[in-house]
Design goal:
Blueprint (H helix, E strand, L loop, with lengths): L1 H10 L9 E4 L6 E5 L11 H18 L2 H15 L32
Antiparallel strand pairs: 1-2
Length: about 110
């Protein structure tokens, strides 16, 4: 639960898109850098990362019954479903902010968490 709570605090932007990687100072625990290694850029939203967040917080709620995890999952889900690049078949582009949409690859694994 500590990891899930820290991730809510540091990984998510105000629109509930997420960073892929957060670097922490090992001595203080403070955030040093927010970035991505698999998305388009540090400010973008990698589709598989969003799907993993949705799945993770759904499972956190299932295991704990704590509604803050359900609320987090719902907010991530709303980001995904209401994203302007999402198509009717709900299979996202590999990154919600990829620069060449609609000519970007799509990733079915992000559609079926």
């Amino acid at each position: 639960m500590s990891h899930a709570n820290t991730t809510i605090k540091n990984h998510f932007r105000p629109d509930f898109s997420s960073y892929h990687v957060i670097a922490y100072n090992p001595k203080t625990g403070k955030v040093v850098k927010k970035n991505t290694h698999q998305g388009y850029n540090d400010a973008s939203s990698w589709a598989r990362g969003q799907a993993w967040g949705l799945y993770a917080y759904t499972m956190c709620f299932r295991e704990t019954g704590d509604k803050k995890y359900l609320q987090q999952a719902e907010k991530i889900g709303n980001f995904i479903l209401n994203n302007s690049s999402m198509l009717k078949d709900l299979v996202p582009y590999w990154d919600y902010n990829a620069p060449k949409i609609p000519f970007e690859p799509r990733v079915v694994s992000a559609a079926i968490p």
